[in-house]
Each structure stands twice: as structure tokens, then as C-alpha cells.
Amino acid sequence: MITSQQVLYIGSYAPEDQPGILVCTFEDATGHLTVRSSFTGIVNPSYLLVHPNGRWLYTVSETSQQKEGMPGAVWALRFTRESWSMEPINHQTSGGDLPCHLEINATGQWLLVSNYGSGTVSVLPILPEGALGEMTDLIQHHGSGPNLARQEGPHAHSATFTPDQRFVIVADLGIDALLVYAFDAAAGRLHEHARISARSGAGPRFKAFHPSGQHLYVNHELDNTVAVYDYDAASGRLRNRQIVETLPPGASQSAIAGIQVSPAGDRLYVSNRGTASAGWCGSAWSTCCTHQRSWRVMCALRTSLKITYLELLSLHYSITLTLG
Q1: Which of 88, 107, 138, 234 has its CA 20 to 30 A from that of 126?
Q2: Which residues does 277 contact at the CB level (< 8 Å), separation at least 6?
Q3: Backbone dihedral region of 250: left (phi > 0), alpha (psi from -120 to 50 degrees) or beta?
Q4: Nearest 5°: CA angle at 45, between 39 and 50?
């Protein structure tokens, strides 16, 4: 029987002297997840992204000047599968506090960083050997929202390239807005193109394009909804089409987290932290990712070292990860 083994990288919140990054393998035939190695040396590597060439890994160091005494950073790492080892290449400032999301363009030459704490988005070049170059652009958002506890100022939560790579769409939770920027791939700069207001108090978080490139799905962390937009590639404009609730009536307090479209484009997966909502990834799951087979999904618990693996909407198994 031919089996397919994939490498998975798992980030976490951890101090510098503890393993914050795990390297695992996933067996396609059995669905088993095995921890192969771990990596220390980075504070709070909470969001990871693999370069298109598969050899380099980029992670945020989600820190802030106020809490840790140092602003956020982004690290470039080199991974060697034969020895399951990882070594740092270099790191750069993220351009703000609490970096929480990374995005690489299709050519693998540019990295976008969303800084939640300061409401900024930065652009960093990826050099030929995988190192990060000096920042080429830094965008500062302004404004606030009606939720005084969570929307006292701008909170850039994710930046996503459009399928044609001409534009970047930034979800800002703090100001209830999607900001569309034209991307200059020669200079690595962003130019404001359009602004779309979300429902007041919704708190846009993450986004996912449909495989057709014609629709964008945006999850709203604060009101637990998903907005569906039609995307016009020619003009770089979004049109609000639908808003869907992700929780049943009377559900306990929750906060939406991850969002993924299946490769076939026939399913949308959303995770809710704080409630087990029927028909969605629930039970306080912080994020979820889809397998290349669209009926499989993995979800990670924010408050424990547990990964849960599902087929369709039935629990297949869960494992508890051991660090050390």
C-alpha cells in the first residue's frame, strides 16, 4: 500500500528556553500524527508559515514592548528533514507589537506581517538564501470600534494576497474594516485601494478565498459570524453577499478563530473558541487546517497541548502532545 507522509509544524506560546515549535509527520493512510522534533530559542512562536520551496520556515515572535519589554519580531528558520533539525537564519523587527499573522506571495519574495497590538502591517523581502531583509513598507491603521474592551484601537489581524497577487486584503479587528491595498511587487510597498466596513462590533479576524478566486470568506471574532464577499479581480473590489451565524441560539460566550476552505471548494471550516457548536469545529478550538482530501480537518486547542483530527464531522481521534 502506498502511503503519503506530510510534515506539519506546530507553533505555540512558550518562553525562549522551552520548545515552542514542534515538527510532526502526518500519515495520510492512517491519520496518525507523530512528533519528530522540537525547537527552542524563540519567545511565543505562535504563527508559522512554510515558504513555497518547503525548505524555509517563518514564525512570529508574538511579544510587545509593554508586556515583554521588546516589540514583535519575525524569524527565518532552515529545516532539514533528514535529521529533523531546525536552525535560525536571521530575524527582523515585525514593525509593531504582537505580530499574529504572516503571508508570503506566490513568488516567495515578499512576507507580510500583521501586528495586532499596534495595528500595523509591514512588508519584508525574502532574500535568495531565505533570510529576511530590511522592512520596505509599514502601514499604520487608525480608528476604533464599539467594543471598548477589544476595539480601543486598530488591531490588524491578517493580511492576505488576492489570487492574482495584485492586491492585499487586511482584516482589522479593532476598526471593523477590511482594507484593500494595491501591492507593488517591484518595491514591496502597499498603496491603499479600497475600504470595506464590516458590521459594527463584528471584529474581522482571518480570511480564506474560494478556490475559484471569486469569493472571499471572512470570520468575525467578536460576533461569531462569517461574511461572504464576491471578489471582482479586475477592479480589486469586494461586494458583501451574505453573513452567516456560526453558533446556535443561546450558545455560551465564544470567539471565532480559524477559517479554512476545503481544496474542493465544497466546505468551509470555522473554529469557535468557547463552545461546541454543531456543524462546525468547536470545543474551544483555536485554529483548524484542512487536509488535501477535503473531508479531513485538524483542530488545535488553545488552552492545552491537544490536536484533534476529524473526518467529515465525526471525531476520528485526538492526541495530547508532549513537550520536552
Answers
A1: 234
A2: 246, 247, 248, 251, 254
A3: left
A4: 80
* Cβ-based burial of 319 (10 A; exposed 0-12, middle 13-18, buried ≥19): middle
Separation of alpha carbons 280 and 269, rounded Å: 6
Q: Residue 316's pLDDT band (boundaries 50, 70, 90)?
A: very low
**Among 271, 296, 298, CA closest to 285:** 271
H/E element, 77? strand 73-80
* Residue reference for cell 497541548: 305
**Strand, helix or coil at 70?**
coil
What is the per-residue pLDDT across 40-65, written as a single tens digit (0 to 9) for each? 999 999 999 999 999 999 999 999 99
Query: Which long-range contacts does 231-238 make (Cβ < 8 Å, 24+ apart)?
Result: 231/162, 233/162, 233/163, 233/164, 233/166, 236/162, 236/166, 236/167, 236/180, 236/182, 236/193, 236/194, 237/180, 237/194, 238/169, 238/178, 238/180, 238/194, 238/196
Q: Can you give the residue ranges of every domain in the chain?
A: 258-324
C-alpha span between 260 and 298 (Å, rounded): 11
What is the rounded CA–CA span in Å between residue 268 and residue 280? 9
Give the pLDDT band (50/70/90) at residue 2: low
What's this model's pTM, rounded to 2 decimal places? Answer: 0.88
Q: Report d(CA 118, CA 217) in Å as an integer.
A: 25
